[in-house]
């Protein structure tokens, strides 16, 4: 059974924009425009898109913070807004820019309060906290008030707070934003470990594609509120024709650029002493074997296709083609809001 099911999910915001010195006009912003998303239990899904694509808005609808303007959504079989309290017991949420911890309390006390709020049995709470303490190295700052923690320490606290009640789904909105490389690595390792056990479904939005590469087999890309890719990272590379590169350093440049079947020359550097070939249908081994018959190779490396490149190409496609989505079911509520940028309807 899918733990997340969304069909024709839509969120329109009505905003007022200046249209002259005194006049304001209403304009509808379709932040999410018919998103269809199904996530199986235990899956780790990367949900990415350029700024303003509609990622946070989707997450807010999935977690019951925002009422959809149209569409059907079920998380853990529940309707997020109507059954928000029940849903809160079954999901965990980490919004990188916001905190769910008590600012003036030491982390340890925040965790204790959460145990009472979620009515977690003492033994379960202790076991989960023990695991987080060891995997996230919490001990050195457990007794420090949250306001005095560094961003990386706080984020480790946020992750723990989101997991202490044993959620089935963890929603993470930019969990590594602003973290240094060491904290990023700690958070990624922790999430990878969480994914390995397969008990928690993970939906992650991030601008750091290394998070996605490390954690997610499946990638959903949205742009202008619509899904433009849903599949593996490899499928995305295939779609944009990005390939592994074989890069060779030569002692001396060749008089003519070599023509290799199935591996066109991709780049030439260092006055022809460094050549890169794209492995379209040839394997890296075949490319190296052919080249070594043509020249003395000083050095050889194989470079995996760069996810940043392919995603940048996807984002800069002028009119991304949305994947076909089934027609949305009838709108459950007639909902129109006028809100400030950070308002919640
Ligand atoms: N409360 C709101 N009122 C009006 N417009 C909103 C509101 N929230 C979001 N929007 C608009 O909806 C669109 C999608 O915003 P959203 O925050 O979901 O994007 P995002 O993909 O999370 O972006 P980012 O990567 O920059 O965080 C944007 O055009 C944004 O300005």
From TrEMBL:
<keyword id="KW-0813">Transport</keyword>
<keyword id="KW-0547">Nucleotide-binding</keyword>
<keyword id="KW-0067">ATP-binding</keyword>
<dbReference type="InterPro" id="IPR003439">
    <property type="entry name" value="ABC_transporter-like_ATP-bd"/>
</dbReference>
<dbReference type="InterPro" id="IPR050763">
    <property type="entry name" value="ABC_transporter_ATP-binding"/>
</dbReference>
<feature type="domain" description="ABC transporter">
    <location>
        <begin position="17"/>
        <end position="249"/>
    </location>
</feature>
<dbReference type="GO" id="GO:0005524">
    <property type="term" value="F:ATP binding"/>
</dbReference>
<protein>
    <submittedName>
        <fullName>ATP-binding cassette domain-containing protein</fullName>
    </submittedName>
</protein>
<dbReference type="Pfam" id="PF00005">
    <property type="entry name" value="ABC_tran"/>
</dbReference>
<dbReference type="InterPro" id="IPR003593">
    <property type="entry name" value="AAA+_ATPase"/>
</dbReference>
<dbReference type="InterPro" id="IPR027417">
    <property type="entry name" value="P-loop_NTPase"/>
</dbReference>
<keyword id="KW-0046">Antibiotic resistance</keyword>
């Amino acid at each position: 059974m899918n733990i997340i099911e969304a069909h024709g999910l839509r969120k329109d915001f009505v905003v007022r924009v200046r249209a002259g010195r005194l006049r304001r006009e209403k304009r509808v912003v379709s932040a999410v425009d018919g998103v269809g998303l199904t996530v199986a239990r235990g899956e780790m899904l990367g949900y990415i898109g350029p700024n303003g694509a509609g990622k946070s808005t989707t997450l807010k609808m999935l977690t019951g913070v925002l009422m959809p303007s149209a569409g059907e959504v079920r998380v853990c079989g529940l309707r997020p807004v109507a059954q928000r309290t029940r849903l809160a017991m079954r999901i965990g949420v980490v919004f990188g820019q916001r905190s769910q911890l008590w600012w003036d309390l030491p982390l340890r006390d925040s965790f204790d309060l959460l145990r009472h709020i979620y009515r977690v049995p003492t033994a379960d709470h202790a076991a989960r906290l023990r695991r987080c303490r060891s995997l996230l190295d919490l001990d050195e700052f457990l007794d420090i008030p949250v306001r005095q923690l560094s961003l990386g320490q706080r984020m480790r606290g946020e992750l723990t707070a989101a997991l202490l009640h044993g959620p089935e789904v963890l929603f993470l909105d930019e969990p590594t934003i602003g973290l240094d490389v060491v904290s990023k690595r700690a958070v990624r390792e922790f999430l990878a470990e969480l994914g390995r056990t397969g008990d928690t479904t993970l939906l992650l939005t991030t601008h750091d594609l290394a998070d996605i590469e490390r954690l997610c087999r499946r990638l959903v890309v949205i742009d202008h509120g619509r899904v433009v890719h849903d599949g593996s990272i490899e499928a995305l590379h295939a779609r944009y024709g990005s390939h592994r590169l074989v890069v060779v350093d030569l002692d001396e440049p060749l008089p003519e650029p070599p023509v290799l079947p199935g591996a066109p020359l991709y780049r030439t550097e260092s006055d022809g002493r460094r050549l890169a070939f794209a492995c379209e249908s040839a394997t890296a081994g075949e490319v190296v074997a052919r080249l070594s018959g043509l020249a003395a190779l000083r050095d050889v490396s194989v470079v995996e296709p760069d996810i940043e490149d392919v995603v940048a190409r996807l984002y800069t496609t002028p009119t991304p083609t949305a994947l076909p989505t089934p027609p949305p079911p009838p709108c459950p509520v007639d909902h129109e809001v006028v809100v400030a940028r950070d308002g919640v309807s």
